[in-house]
Design a protein that fits this description.
The complex is a heterodimer. By secondary structure, chain A is mainly alpha-helical. Chain A has 17 helices and no strands. In chain B, strands 2-1-3 form a 3-stranded mixed β-sheet. Chain B has a two-stranded antiparallel sheet with strand order 4-5. Classes of the chains: A mainly alpha, B mainly alpha.
């Protein structure tokens, strides 16, 4: 997994790469069109760029580079050590850590994986939300707002009402679903009724939601006494999502919700009339209209479902304990935007989104460990994440770097084209 | 163009008659009712005023002429203005004003309402005074990054490339300005910010123009990339030795002699720092260039109908590349304003959504430089209002968070077509593939 700093980086290619090459016969063409391979190579290329950043920012590497020309090997060894150390601890934080596992406790062995699953949960749900909207030709950048509304509704139902066990958590989840769904519906309605572009309205509604949250966190009854901090009351234990593997491991039943939602989206898109309409509107809205479907109604419906999915992401944030069961100003934790990268990497289908969510969840969980043990900033993961998506969105670039042939279009190219469309 | 066509006699004489678009009754009455509502609000504000008088301070201290403070009786003013606005609204609802007159009436109403609102707000405390010049200066300062970001958007989107990455370009500029401003001096920092923003713009260009990546996706991803890169460098390099890496100090204001002493206008226009002067030049320059030069015509042609532009020999892709890179540089300057103009150092995600408000200003201003600047100033004022209201303590506390929402809500109304139609350049966001 680790790469040396000397490996080829994402150098800007010359113009020859862009032109759709004529289909060359043989295995190489198929190789370049293989989405899985392109995705894997995008990941490798992103990790290489990350490695270069780690190597360059490493103090030991920089010190030894002062005498690079008299003794270049030092620079390479210290760069190698920095990169290796970083990526090994990234792996240990995300999958398996022999040091903690040697204690023999369940938490020691499964701790890293459990963190990965816990981090992946909202990412998967958010990714499904963005992906579903993609399929209907809409671009949902409003994950942040929908997550906030979902978390606010679920959190309020969780701490303001006092219901018996089991019932309470279900009610809280439903409240979150309503919150996210309403916020999504607003976007869908604005598009259906007034033709307002969903990218613009979702970006704006994100900020409206952020300030609404900030306001709520200053209101008595919502804010936690003694009212000094911007934090809400704590959700009743009845309304918390139960942990799956005991209280020492972070993974909670929210992960099962995410898996169920993924299955639900798969079913919706492949087996239901509603999903068929979504796909028809996404593929060609004029054809869908000619076939008798109401494009406008479907805009609203798909945004409701997308909002519900993002709302669920908010539910797992608040009821899953990511913020100790209280609503904070950054309850969304940037998931709304990460979800876009998840959906693109997952190619907007349910199975792919789950895998992409797991990958980014692992990167996020590992980054924490990496920062604590090697001091490398967690932002490296954000860079890697952005680069992976850039590369898969521009497969021609990946093919150029790795000298493959092919002509497939990138992820997300058939989406909403312009502000007016 | 065939030669035979010109020899033929003019068979058809086309005359263009200016036909005034009939305004629908619903729209006419709707605007009228809205005006009446504003008038009623004025009356309510007048009734809710605590103190009798509100004072507006119009001077800063260094002007030639000292304009005396203006003190108005709050309730009486509010009642008079309220009745006038209600009368105006009633006339509009029944008879309807002409379009150009309506614009004037609308702006006037907005200004008068603002005046009533501010006097009401100032009537709450014990003899609170509103420092008008200070409010305006702060508005310009808060609006500066928004204006520059929105101008960056104008440059990109007028040539047909959607720029959702304004935030990322600003962030890169803010970072480069702070780091290189510390190492090689503030002016060098500004240049570094221009270069960093331009590089981010170039990245947008490469992926949007060469690799035909969906431009909204691209913008979002580039923002994440920029947040990651600048955050990484901040943690790895700048934070450990902040004095040598992240301590550029802010630019001093350069007061232009004589001119800066004009009341009200002087402090606003002629007592600013280098970046704000550059911004003023850019506003005028971009507006002029876009509508009066060959470059501007080409830019607009490429943004509206690239195929037609290509047919007459304009290199569509080159125009787009150039504009996107220039746009990135302008956004980078906006970022530099934050670190070198107002804060004096870089922190993670220092732009905190300003790039997105700039995008909102661009859309609210209907993709024109003038409109974008106006919208950015409006949004800057909405920010400043939050500070102002916390200072003067109005009779009824207005949660500042709701004021903070205003720009976003206004933009939603704008794109929903409730305040006139908003239309993007026709080819905005569509990659151009020859053939």
């Amino acid at each position: 997994m680790t790469q040396t700093a000397g490996a080829p980086a994402a150098s800007p290619p010359d113009g020859s790469a862009v032109k759709a090459q004529p289909p060359a016969p043989g295995a190489k063409r198929a190789l370049g069109d293989n989405t899985l391979l392109v995705t894997a190579l995008a990941f490798v290329a992103a990790m290489v760029v990350g490695a270069i950043l780690i190597a360059v920012s490493n103090p030991a590497t920089r010190d030894s580079s002062h005498y690079f020309f008299s003794y270049p090997w030092d620079t390479f060894t210290s760069a190698w050590h920095a990169v290796r150390g970083a990526y090994v601890s990234l792996f240990q934080g995300a999958v398996f850590n022999p040091h903690t596992a040697s204690s023999g406790t369940l938490a020691g062995i499964l701790g890293p994986l459990s963190n990965t699953l816990a981090r992946a949960t909202p990412l998967i749900l958010g990714g499904l939300s963005v992906g579903l909207a993609f399929r209907a030709g809409l671009f949902n950048i409003g994950g942040q707002g929908q997550i906030i509304l979902g978390a606010v509704f679920a959190g309020y139902a969780g701490f303001a009402w006092h219901l018996p066990i089991v019932l309470h958590v279900i009610v809280a989840i439903l409240a979150g679903v309503v919150g996210g769904g309403l916020w999504g519906a607003l976007t869908g309605w604005l598009k259906a009724r007034f033709g307002a572009h969903e990218v613009i309205t979702t970006i704006m509604l994100n900020y409206v939601a952020l300030y609404l949250l900030a306001f709520l966190l200053s209101v008595k009854g919502f804010q936690r006494p003694p009212y000094g901090q911007a934090i809400s009351n704590v959700v009743d234990s009845n309304a918390q999502l139960p942990n799956l593997l005991g209280s020492n491991l972070a993974v909670n039943s929210g992960f099962l919700i995410a898996l169920a939602a993924a299955y639900g989206m798969h079913w919706l898109l492949t087996r239901s009339t509603l999903g068929f309409q979504f796909r028809a509107v996404g593929a060609n809205q004029f054809a869908a209209r000619t076939a008798g479907m109401s494009v406008e109604k479907n805009y609203v419906r798909v945004m409701v479902v997308a909002g519900v999915l993002s709302g669920l992401a908010g539910v797992t944030q608040i009821l899953g304990g990511a913020t100790n069961y209280a609503i904070t100003p950054d309850i969304d934790a940037g998931i709304g935007f990460d979800a876009i990268t998840v959906a693109l990497l997952g190619r907007a289908n349910a199975g792919g989104t789950v895998l992409a969510g797991l990958l980014f969840g692992a990167l996020k969980a590992g980054a924490v460990q990496m920062q604590s043990s090697t001091g490398i900033p967690v932002e490296v993961v954000e860079i890697i994440q952005a680069l992976i998506v850039l590369f898969i969105a521009a497969p021609a670039l990946v093919r150029f770097i790795f000298r493959l042939h092919g002509s497939g279009a990138g992820a997300g190219q058939d989406l909403a084209k312009g502000w007016n469309g | 163009m065939s030669t035979t066509a010109s020899t033929e006699p003019d068979a058809v004489i086309v005359t263009h008659a200016v036909v005034e678009r009939p305004v629908s009754t619903g729209r006419r009455v709707g605007i009228g009712v809205a005006l009446v509502v504003v008038g009623v609000l004025c009356l309510l504000l007048g009734a809710g005023a605590h103190a009798h008088n509100a004072t507006f301070d119009l001077t800063q201290g260094s002007e030639f002429v000292k304009i005396p403070n203006v003190t108005v009786p709050v309730a009486a003013t509010a009642y008079v203005i309220g009745v006038l606005v209600i009368a105006l609204g009633a006339y509009q609802a029944v008879r309807g004003l002409r379009a150009n007159l309506l614009t004037v009436a609308g702006s006037l109403t907005a200004l008068l309402f603002l005046f009533v609102f501010l006097s009401w707000a100032a009537s709450g405390g014990q003899g609170s005074t509103i420092d008008v010049v200070g409010v305006l200066t702060n508005t310009v300062a808060l609006a500066s990054p928004l204006i520059l970001g929105a101008l960056a958007g104008v440059l990109c989107e007028r040539s047909g490339v959607i720029n959702v990455a304004i935030e990322g370009q600003m962030l890169a500029g803010a970072w480069a300005g702070a780091m290189f401003g510390t190492i090689i001096g503030r002016t060098g920092g500004v240049i570094a910010a221009l270069v960093a923003g331009a590089l981010m713009g170039w990245l947008l260009g490469v992926f949007a123009i060469r690799y035909l990546v969906n431009q909204v996706v691209l913008g979002v991803v580039l923002n994440v990339l920029s947040i990651g890169l600048t955050g990484f460098i901040y943690d790895a390099i700048m934070q450990p030795n902040a004095n040598a890496m992240n301590n550029p100090q802010t630019f001093n204001n350069l007061a232009i002699p004589v001119l800066s002493k004009i009341p009200i206008v002087g402090p606003l226009l002629f007592d600013q720092n280098l970046i704000v002067y550059a911004m003023y030049l850019l506003i005028v320059g971009i507006h002029f260039a876009l509508f009066r030069t060959r470059w501007g015509l080409r830019t607009r042609a490429v943004g509206e109908h690239p195929k037609a532009a290509d047919t007459v020999g304009i290199n569509v892709l080159r125009v787009r590349y150039r504009n996107v890179i220039m746009g990135g540089a302008v956004a980078g300057l906006g970022g530099a304003f934050m670190t070198l103009g107002s804060v004096g150092s870089f922190t993670k995600e220092i732009t905190s959504g300003n790039g997105f408000i700039a995008l909102a200003a661009l859309i609210f201003g209907r993709w024109s430089p003038r409109g974008a600047v106006g919208a950015a100033l409006l949004f800057g004022f909405a920010y400043e209002l939050q500070t102002l209201l916390s200072l003067v303590s109005p009779p009824v506390t207005i949660p500042s968070n709701f004021l903070a929402m205003l720009p976003y809500v206004a933009t939603i109304f704008a794109v929903a077509g409730l305040v006139g139609r908003v239309r993007a350049p026709a080819a905005d966001g569509e990659p151009y593939v020859k053939g």
